[in-house]
Write a structure and sequence with these properties.
heterodimer; A: 112 residues; mainly beta; Immunoglobulin-like; 7-stranded mixed sheet; 4-stranded antiparallel sheet; B: 114 residues; 6-stranded mixed sheet; 11 strands
Chain lengths: 112, 114
């Protein structure tokens, strides 16, 4: 069966510090990978989408970037965090064209 | 007009009651409809996944899609305290969302009282 792992679960970072969140998927190959952000009262927002290694689509201009160095690895990064980057970051994957999204357990980021 | 509307609640019902959760949407091109359950500080968990109109049942859960009314529902029978969570509806033009991702409702907070 497929599983998705995200870490860390929680993170507190000062403004201006870098960020690296990692997500890996097991039990499948060539998944579509996604990064979402969930802010209180604002729902889930798609940040980045990837159909393969090195292929990243950005949905929202922002202070963040994403990379996919391996087939089942997806990384969310920032060079300098802003207070507005605080939120709950979720990685998700989907398989073939008829499968829905499956989410990891998220990383709660607080920028202080 | 927001693309997906969902009452945030909280919705509080006694244990054993039938729960009805609903979403309305404005984009008639949506083809795929999902319900996710999200416990506090956890990621959303897929409950139901349907294509186009109709009903789908899985255990105590029934999902209904009425594309003519742009209205989807999730029914929970014999509700349990463990069903207490936030329920998110989601919809997509393509399965998995594709480059467009999923469009989510903001979620309904459900409380089942023992």
């Amino acid at each position: 069966s497929q599983t998705i792992h995200q870490w860390p679960a929680t993170l507190v970072q000062p403004v201006g510090s870098p960020l690296s969140l990692e997500c890996t998927v097991e039990g499948t190959s060539n998944p579509n990978l996604y990064w979402y952000r969930q802010a209180a009262g604002r729902g889930l927002q798609l940040l980045f989408y990837s159909v393969g290694i090195g292929q990243i689509s950005s949905e929202v201009p922002q202070n963040l970037s994403a990379s996919r160095p391996q087939d089942r690895q997806f990384i969310l990064s920032s060079k300098k965090l802003l207070l507005s980057d605080s939120g709950f970051y979720l990685c998700a994957w989907s398989g073939d064209r008829n499968s829905p999204l499956h989410f990891g357990n998220g990383t709660r980021l607080t920028v202080t | 007009q927001k693309e997906v509307e969902q009452d945030p609640g909280p919705l509080s019902v006694p244990e054993g009651a039938i729960v009805s959760l609903n979403c309305t949407y404005s984009n008639s091109a949506f083809q795929y409809f999902m319900w996710y359950r999200q416990y506090s500080r956890k990621g959303p968990e897929l409950l139901m996944y349907t294509y186009s109109s109709g009903n789908k049942e899985d255990g105590r859960f029934t999902a209904q899609v009425d594309k003519s009314s742009k209205y989807i529902s999730l029914f929970i029978r014999d509700s349990q305290p463990s069903d207490s969570a936030t329920y998110l509806c989601a919809m997509a033009l393509r399965s998995g969302g594709g480059a467009d991702g999923l469009t989510f409702g903001k979620g309904t907070h459900l409380i089942i009282q023992p």
